[in-house]
Amino acid sequence: MKFLKKKTYMSVGEVADFLGLDPALVSRMIENGELVAEKVGTGYKVEQSVGEAYKTFAEKSSFEANSDCGGCGWRYSSKESFRGRCTKCGAPLCFDCWIRLGKRICSDCEK
After folding, report:
1. Same structural domain for residues 47 and 21?
2. 47 CB-side CA count, 13 A
3. How far apart are CA 75 and CA 96, in angstroms?
4. Domain-embedded: residue 32
5. 1 within domain boundaries
6. Is residue 46 included in any domain, yes or no?
7. Where do the DSSP E strands lie in the chain?
8. Fewest beta carbons within 10 Å, which of 13, 20, 39, 111?
9. Count of structural domains, the chain
10. Are 105 and 85 a contacting pair, CB within 8 Å?
11. In-domain check, residue 4
């Protein structure tokens, strides 16, 4: 007989505190499918391991302000302007290149 480890859950407010975000943003992330959660009554509960994994991912994929987009070469002063990274070298790709153009590889790696 296998023993199942009891799952630990966090409320939306606890996840927001843990990630350093606004609770409304965490709720939107859940509704958009960016953060996996289980519906409990009228609210959501996030498994603690999911919250920890998201935080690790966010820290690893954070962008620097005043960086150049690897796709179009534009310099952006806000780190929120970047949406993803080149799948080959990790260069930052801006929102426009990532979403509108669907680029996943920077200009240098395309050559």
Report:
1. yes
2. 8
3. 13
4. yes
5. no
6. yes
7. 9-11, 38-40, 43-47, 67-68, 75-76, 82-85, 92-94
8. 111
9. 2
10. no
11. no
> What is the C-alpha to C-alpha distance for residues 43 and 23, in angstroms, rounded to an integer?
12
Q: At what angle do helices 12-19 and 23-31 cross, to 10 degrees?
A: 110
Range of the domain at 27: 9-60
Instruction: Tell me the pLDDT of the chain (111 aa) as tens digits.
Output: 555 566 788 899 998 888 777 888 888 888 888 788 899 898 899 888 877 777 766 666 667 778 899 999 999 887 778 888 888 888 888 889 988 899 999 999 988
Say if residues 27 and 13 touch (Cβ distance below 8 Å): no
* Whether residue 46 is found in the same domain as residue 72: no
Eight-state DSSP code of residue 27: H
Tokens of 98: 């990532």
Amino acid making up residue 31: E
